[in-house]
Write a structure and sequence with these properties.
With 308 residues, the chain is of the alpha/beta class. The protein has three domains: 65 residues, no CATH class; 130 residues, von Willebrand factor, type A domain (Rossmann fold, 3-Layer(aba) Sandwich); 90 residues, no CATH class. The chain has a five-stranded mixed sheet, covered by helices on one side. Strands 1-2 form a two-stranded antiparallel sheet. A hairpin with a 2-residue loop joins strand 4 and strand 5. Helix 5 runs parallel beside helix 6. It is elongated, with a radius of gyration of 37 Å.
Amino acid sequence: MQETYTDWTLVSLSPLTAGWLAACIIAIVVACSFVVWSYRNAKERAWLIPMRAVAALLVVGFLVEPALQLRAVRHVKNRLAVVLDRSRSMTLATDNNHTRYENVLGALEHGRESLAALAKSHSIDWFDLDGALAPSAIDSPPLGEHSDLLLALEHAREAGAGKPLAGLVLVSDGADNAELEGKERGKLSQEAVTRLMRLGVPVNTVSAAQTQSFKDVAVESVISDEFAFVHNTLEIEVNLEATGFDTLTVPVTLRREDEDEWLDPANSEPETLLPLLRPYPAEEMAAYPVSRMVNSPANDAPDILLHA
């Protein structure tokens, strides 16, 4: 098949190095200048000077040995890697009664024409948190068990067989069970920042969750004495992380009959612990007005809980 050339460039076929070529050209220019200066009073300088200049150009051409190189140029599309979070947290419902992942699929359908236009100038590669994702599998339900967003971005960065990467797009609800968040809530850890900088390409994020659409209370830690005497009070300190409640106070009640099961350090099975995380029965609770003194932490008397 005959090659079609689409570009050309000038090259030098001289065996001399660039340094030697530069030195020779400087010497020819200096010699030519001296000759022209010596013809300043000659009557024939009008035709002698052009002849000497042509001779100098011929010598430079002999040294440089210029040639025209034809090239077949193929334009390689920049690669755009899109990482879709397909973990189980994407199955949570939002305010519009659709799951987070259903909202993502709706956005992709709405932007189908824009994606088609983008595909003309970029090669769009699809990934989930586990690796490459076939376009035909995008519509399948999300079943991922882990959410390591940084590792997924790094895998997408390394894929592509050497094609230039224009950027990364992460579509996620932000739930990450790796080391993305630092000690301060809502802030990236220093290690996460370093790994993001190492990617070397722009990272664009698209949120798949609405801030107020998901309410959750997570038990971060439980601190209690290792033993207690009979009929003595046992103090238990529980650290909770609440999401989606703003400044609302979230009361937590643990039934006495569930204490042993909840505090058992050997009990780490979700099947046995999840039933404990249920609303307290409304019929076992009573609501009544109390004194406004409860609004101040300085008031710590039992009578402030009496019926007002």
